[in-house]
Amino acid sequence: MTLPRLLVLTDRTQCAGPLPHAVAAAIEAGARAVVLREKDLPAAARAELAAALSALLTPVAGTLLVAGSASIYASAAGVHLAAGDPFPSVRPPLVGRSCHDAREVAAAEGCDYVTVSPVFPTPSKPGYGPPLGPAGLATLTRTGPPAFALGGVCPADVAACRAAGAYGVAVMGGVMRDPHSVAEYLSALHNTVEDQP
Q: What sign for the dihedral angle of Cα 140, 142, 145, 150?
């Protein structure tokens, strides 16, 4: 596993300004892995965004992943698949998948990591059933690829997510609204890594 324990997912609708500015601030605060979502944009616009974010991450040896299976841009290190997306016919260096239940985690065989959501209540993940909570998260981290806890995760929740077996946490809204909160997530993650073997 080459990814850091904090995974930042983009959502330009929650940013105070342009998405690259928010990502730049998150990187300045310590973020080193970003998933470019924005799947509603045309391919050319997403490719342009991917190139811009890659240019921000490259100087800090960061990692850019692109959500969706249709296009894997040259500037990205890999792809983040939706639960039902087919596995890429040509495997990129990193492959992740969004999961919401045990069946989807089991189907993620061959992936480098999964996100498991929603762990806590969040307006960003409607329609995926009730929040899993730490206990539900724990049932989905026992098998399968390393898991990032996603959905309503605040810095204060990091320890519970790690105790439930999560490799790390994935954050969208919290970081998009306040990129400087990355430092709080990293501090909480650092404490759990020190506490656990």
A: positive
Give phi and psi for 96, each to the nearest 5. Answer: -120, 165
Q: Is the pTM of this model over 0.85?
A: yes
Residues 10-15, mean pLDDT to the nearest whole number:
97
Q: How far is CA 37 from CA 23, 89, 109, 134, in A?
A: 12, 21, 22, 26
Strand partners, 79: 66, 95
Q: Enter the DSSP assignment of 154.
A: -
Torsion angle of C-alpha atoms 19, 34, 26, 127, degrees rounded to 10: 70
**pLDDT, tens digit, 9 for 90 and up, residues 140-153:** 999 899 999 999 99
d(CA 185, CA 154): 8
Query: Which residues are CB-contacts of 22 (< 8 A; sequence separation ≥ 6)?
Result: 10, 12, 15, 16, 175, 176, 179
Q: 115 pairs with which residues across the strands? A: 98, 148
Domain architecture of the chain: domains with CATH: 6-195 (3.20.20.70)
Task: Kindly state the tokens that stand for 72.
Answer: 């894997």
Q: Distance between CA atoms of 23 and 184, rounded to whole angstroms?
A: 16
Residue 157: half-sphere exposure toward Cβ, Cα within 13 Å: 22
Residue 73 has pLDDT above 90, yes or no: no
The type of residue at 52 is: A
